Backbone:
C-alpha cells in the first residue's frame, strides 16, 4: 500500500488544477438555455419568477401559497433573476449549475484535507462526469442546492471531528440550517443518521463531544421554529400541518399523489446507474481488503494509535506525536453514505435524484479507489490490469454508444452525430493506449471519454429528448387563442400546467374542479376557451354536447396530453 499511497500524494500541478476547473465550469454552463422540460422545471421556474416579482417568506405557484418547499432556493433564484436583468430560463437553471460547481469545489477541498490534492481532484472529476450529477445540475430543481449544503456540512463535520477550529462548527450548523430552509428536515435527518452511525463506530474517541450538541441543538431548534412560525403566520395551522405532516411523514410512509412509490431495494440498482460510467471504482469500495482493520481501529482506538492504513490523511488537526488519533476519513465517509441510504430506502417515495446528498462522500471513497487502481497498473509492477481494462471498456462504451445510436436511429442531421462519434473514438483510442502502457495519464483519457459522452448528451441527445419534454412551443401557440389579459381555464391542471402557462404567457391559470362538466347547470356561463389535460372519452363527449370543438392537442411523453377546446363566443 505504500506505493499506492505515495502515488496518491503526488500533487497535480497548478496548471492542471486550473485547466480542470475551467473545463468543469464550461461543462456546467452547457445547455442552460434550453426550454423548460416537464414535469418539474415549469413549476420551479414559475415559483422563482413569482418570488422575484413579489418577494415573500412563503413561495407561491400561480399566486397560491406553496407550503411544501421552504424559501431559500427561491430567494437565491430570484436574486439571480435580479442580477441578470429579469426572469429567464437560463438564469433559473444557472442556480443548479452554480450549486454543482460549488459542490465540486467543496469535495475537492474535502479530499485535499482528508488525503491529498490528487485525491480531491480525482473525486471531483469523477463526480462531475457521473450521470446523475450531469443531468441534476442542468435541471431547474432544488436538489443540487440541497446537495451543496449537505456536502458543506459533511466536510465541516469531518473537520470538527478532526479537531478543527470553531469556524468549522459554525459552518456545520450554518449549512444544516440552510439545508433545513431549502428542503425541510430531509437534509439534517440524512446527515444526522450518518453521524450517529459514525459515533457508534468511533465510540472510544467520543467525537460527538466536538459538535457541542447542547449548543448546536438549540441553534437547530431555533432555525426549525423560525421556519414553522413563518409557515404558520402565512397560512395558519393548516399550512403547518401540510408542511410538517403531509410533506414529511406522509411522503415518508406512503406517497401522497407523487407517483414515486418504489420498492425497498430501489437504490441498490439506481446507485449504479447514478455513478455511471465509474462502475469499477464503485465496486472497489466494497472490497473487504479496503475495510479490513478500519472499524476495529475506529472502535478500539487508544491515545497511542493512529489512523489505520491505507487511506491517507493530510489534516493537521491531530497531534504530530500520535497522542490524539485523527479520524479515519474512509469510516467517516462510509458512515454518511450508509446512514443516508438507509433513510432513503425506508421512505416509500423514492427518486434517483434523491441520492444527490449522499453521493459526495461516496465519490470521495471512489476517488481513492480510482487512484489506487491507476497506481497498481503503473510500471514496474502493473498489477490490477483486469480491473483497469474493465473500466476502460465501460468508458469506451460510454463515449461511443450514444453518438452511434443517434447516428443509426436519430431523425435529425448526421453531421453532429458523426462529429460526436469521431470525438468518442479518438478518446477511446487514447484510453486504450494508456491502459496498455499502464501510464498514469490514463486518468486524463478516462476523463476525456466521460467528457465526450457529456458533449454527445448535450448536442445530440438533448434535442431528441426535448421533443417529448418541451412544452414551451405548444403553450406559445395556444397563447394566441386567448383574449389579451384573460386567464386560462383548465381542467385537470396540475403543478406543471400551473407553472408553464404563467411563466411563458404571464396568464393566470384558473383550475376547474374535476366534476366541473358534470355539475354545470344549463344556461350557466362557460368559458369560451377551455384547456384540458388528460384523455377521457366520456369527458370529450360531454365537451361536444356543451358546444365545444377541439382546436389543437399535443402529447408529451407517455401520459401527458394537453388539448384546447373552444366554443362560439
Residues:
Amino acid at each position: 500500500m505504500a506505493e499506492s499511497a505515495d502515488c496518491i500524494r503526488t500533487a497535480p500541478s497548478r496548471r492542471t488544477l486550473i485547466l480542470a476547473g475551467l473545463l468543469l465550469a464550461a461543462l456546467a454552463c452547457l445547455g442552460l438555455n434550453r426550454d423548460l422540460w416537464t414535469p418539474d422545471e415549469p413549476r420551479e421556474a414559475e415559483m422563482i419568477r413569482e418570488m422575484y416579482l413579489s418577494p415573500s417568506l412563503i413561495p407561491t405557484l400561480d399566486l397560491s401559497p406553496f407550503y411544501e418547499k421552504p424559501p431559500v432556493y427561491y430567494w437565491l433564484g430570484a436574486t439571480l433573476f435580479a442580477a441578470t436583468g429579469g426572469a429567464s430560463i437560463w438564469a433559473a437553471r444557472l442556480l443548479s449549475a452554480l450549486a454543482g460547481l460549488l459542490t465540486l469545489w467543496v469535495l475537492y477541498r474535502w479530499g485535499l484535507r482528508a488525503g491529498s490534492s490528487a485525491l480531491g481532484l480525482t473525486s471531483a472529476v469523477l463526480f462531475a462526469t457521473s450521470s446523475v450529477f450531469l443531468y441534476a445540475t442542468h435541471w431547474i430543481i432544488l436538489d443540487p442546492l440541497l446537495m451543496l449544503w449537505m456536502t458543506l456540512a459533511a466536510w465541516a463535520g469531518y473537520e470538527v471531528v478532526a479537531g478543527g477550529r470553531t469556524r468549522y462548527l459554525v459552518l456545520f450548523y450554518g449549512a444544516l440550517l440552510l439545508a433545513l430552509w431549502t428542503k425541510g428536515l430531509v437534509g439534517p435527518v440524512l446527515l444526522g443518521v450518518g453521524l450517529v452511525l459514525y459515533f457508534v463506530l468511533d465510540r472510544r474517541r467520543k467525537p460527538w463531544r466536538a459538535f457541542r450538541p447542547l449548543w448546536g441543538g438549540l441553534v437547530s431548534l431555533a432555525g426549525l421554529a423560525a421556519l414553522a412560525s413563518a409557515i404558520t403566520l402565512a397560512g395558519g395551522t393548516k399550512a403547518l400541518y401540510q408542511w410538517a405532516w403531509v410533506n414529511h411523514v406522509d411522503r415518508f410512509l406512503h406517497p401522497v399523489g407523487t407517483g414515486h412509490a418504489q420498492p425497498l431495494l430501489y437504490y441498490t440498482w439506481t446507485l449504479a446507474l447514478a455513478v455511471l460510467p465509474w462502475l469499477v471504482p464503485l465496486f472497489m469500495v466494497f472490497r473487504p481488503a479496503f475495510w479490513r482493520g478500519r472499524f476495529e481501529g475506529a472502535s478500539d482506538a487508544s491515545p497511542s494509535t493512529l489512523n489505520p492504513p491505507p487511506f491517507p490523511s493530510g489534516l493537521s488537526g491531530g497531534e504530530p506525536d500520535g497522542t490524539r488519533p485523527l479520524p479515519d476519513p474512509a469510516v467517516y465517509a462510509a458512515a454518511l453514505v450508509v446512514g443516508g441510504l438507509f433513510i432513503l430506502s425506508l421512505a416509500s417515495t423514492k427518486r434517483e435524484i434523491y441520492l444527490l446528498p449522499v453521493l459526495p462522500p461516496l465519490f470521495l471513497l471512489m476517488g481513492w479507489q480510482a487512484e489506487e487502481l491507476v497506481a497498481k497498473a503503473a510500471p514496474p509492477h502493473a498489477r490490477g490490469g483486469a480491473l483497469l481494462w474493465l473500466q476502460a471498456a465501460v468508458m469506451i462504451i460510454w463515449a461511443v454508444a450514444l453518438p452511434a445510436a443517434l447516428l443509426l436511429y436519430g431523425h435529425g442531421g448526421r453531421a453532429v452525430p458523426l462529429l460526436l462519434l469521431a470525438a468518442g473514438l479518438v478518446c477511446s483510442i487514447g484510453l486504450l493506449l494508456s491502459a496498455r502502457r499502464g501510464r498514469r495519464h490514463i486518468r486524463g483519457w478516462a476523463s476525456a471519454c466521460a467528457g465526450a459522452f457529456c458533449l454527445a448528451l448535450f448536442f445530440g441527445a438533448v434535442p431528441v429528448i426535448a421533443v417529448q419534454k418541451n412544452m414551451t412551443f405548444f403553450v406559445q401557440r395556444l397563447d394566441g387563442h386567448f383574449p389579451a389579459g384573460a386567464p386560462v381555464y383548465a381542467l385537470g391542471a396540475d403543478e406543471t400546467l400551473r407553472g408553464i402557462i404563467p411563466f411563458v404567457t404571464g396568464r393566470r391559470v384558473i383550475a376547474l374542479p374535476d366534476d366541473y362538466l358534470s355539475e354545470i347547470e344549463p344556461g350557466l356561463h362557460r368559458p369560451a376557451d377551455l384547456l384540458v389535460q388528460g384523455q377521457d372519452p366520456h369527458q370529450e363527449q360531454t365537451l361536444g354536447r356543451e358546444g365545444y370543438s377541439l382546436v389543437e392537442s399535443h402529447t408529451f411523453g407517455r401520459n401527458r396530453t394537453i388539448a384546447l377546446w373552444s366554443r362560439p363566443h
The mean pLDDT is 85. Residues 374 and 440 are 6 Å apart (CA to CA). The longest strand covers residues 549-556.
